[in-house]
Amino acid sequence: MYYSSLMLKIILIPKNNDEYDEYNGYNENRKIHLTNNIGSFTYGKCDLNYFKIIANENEYIMKFIVDNYNDKIKFNINDIDVKVNGCSDDRIEMYDVNGIIYCETPKCSESCPINNSAVCKPKLINNTIENICECLPGWKNDCKTKIFLDYRKINKVIVISAIIVIVIIVIYIIFVILNVKQGIIKDIGYIKLLFSYNIEIIIN
After folding, report:
1. Which of 64, 112, 151, 199 is deepest in the core (most CB within 10 A)?
2. For every one of its 204 residues, what pLDDT tens digit does the chain have, with 9 covering 90 and above?
3. Rounded to the nearest 10 degrees, what angle do helices 151-179 and 190-203 cross at?
4. How many beta carbons lie within 10 A of that of residue 191, not counting itself?
5. Would you kindly state where each structural domain of the chain is located, as residue ranges?
6. Residue 54 and residue 95: Cα distance in Å, rounded?
7. Which secondary structure element, helix H or strand E, spans residue 146, and what is its range?
């Protein structure tokens, strides 16, 4: 049996508020606005596809009630916990005429290549003058110039490191040659191998 005359309504109450107040629409005290939260049953089905919650950041309880029906009815729908989050860091908090916070995408000038090589960073006021056009990694200046790796600096570091290593090896070889006769280092055949090995390193 289908009830085509039944009206289903969704209400929202703050989780930390014990007062149960059935309302539809804007509530001055709670700063909540519900749109498309009332639907009727058609062949036993009630669609609320366009239901929308506009509320400040808080935890709420969503309840389902049946309007215009006074007799007993079995209603197997549990309450739903709802958490309304605040705006993310890349968006701006704005207030509507009812004092409810909503989020806006920051606006930058048309010259800012958003979604390509830059992002628009929000300030307190959402306008193209206040907001900041910030380049993504790898871009500079007007966010339209790529940053290329300068290999010349890397080559300088490699050359300097190689010179330091060669100087250390040369000093070590000189030390060995000068002290082999002083008894500090005894030549048992390894001096020739060491010398030839170090020369090979220098050449390579």
Report:
1. 112
2. 555 567 888 888 888 765 445 544 445 556 788 888 888 877 777 888 889 888 888 899 998 888 766 666 777 788 899 999 988 888 888 888 888 888 889 999 889 998 889 999 888 788 888 899 999 998 988 888 888 876 777 888 888 888 998 888 888 878 777 766 665 555 545 455 455 544 444 444
3. 160
4. 15
5. 7-84, 105-146, 151-203
6. 11
7. strand 145-146
Q: Which string of DSSP letters, residue by residue, matches 78-91?
A: --EEEEE----TTS
86, 20 contact by CB (below 8 A): no
Residues in contact with 177: Cβ distance below 8 Å, sequence separation at least 6, in sequence order: 195
Which residues, 6+ apart, have CB-to-CB distance to 45 below 8 Å?
A: none
Alpha-carbon torsion (14, 20, 24, 28), positive or negative: negative
DSSP letter assigned to residue 47? -
CA torsion sign for 131, 135, 140, 144 is negative
